[in-house]
């Protein structure tokens, strides 16, 4: 009888240890919540727009461990360029350089800063010498159509989460700057219409389901219980 109760105690102890081990493992498991992509679109250059992404709801003892902002954006325009030099050129082209930035700020403190650097080119094409009329038309000009260049990037932080926690939203300020220029000739004219930036951003929160201290408290309680059982 005594041997049986001892065996039961050992079996119960092992079962509890397994249960505690399970709790510890789940506390260390990282879970993620990713928001929907929120679009932006504004005219350039420069230009900006504020969009709202959801905060992290930490109810139920969830502990935030990482915040990641992802952004994808472009710089676009309908571009027509004209050769104003006296010589026909065979490497007539257009260069684009731009920067789209996403920022999350708490007052004057920048918590997240994300840059999309854009540098690209269209062409080359051949155009004739300046035809004497600066009108973005004729054999001296080329319509490049709609040029659109995009980039994507992400940035994370693993501390100072207060600003991100709640049931509301956080504003993300998207700013853009950029320009198109002509290459391949010594003199030129260029016209950009519908010049702008568009894209979207989203936020991902990584968290543990419960505080690690809770699992440690559970382990301590199990130890006390086993010690008491052994003492009997
Ligand atoms: Ca012309």
Summarize this structure briefly.
The protein is of the alpha+beta class and 232 residues long. The protein has 2 helices and 9 strands, in the order H-E-E-E-E-E-E-E-E-E-H.
Q: What class do helices, strands and sheet pairing give?
A: alpha+beta
Distance between the termini: 14 Å
Sheet with most strands: 5 strands, antiparallel
Strand content: over 45%
Radius of gyration: 31 Å
Mean pLDDT: 87
Shape: rod-shaped
Q: Low-confidence segments, ≥5 residues, pLDDT <50?
A: 7-27
Order of helices and strands: HEEEEEEEEEH
Q: What small ligands are held by the chains? A: calcium ion
Number of E-type strands: 9
In which range does the helix fraction lie?
A: 10-25%
Number of helices: 2
Number of domains in the coordinates?
Answer: 2
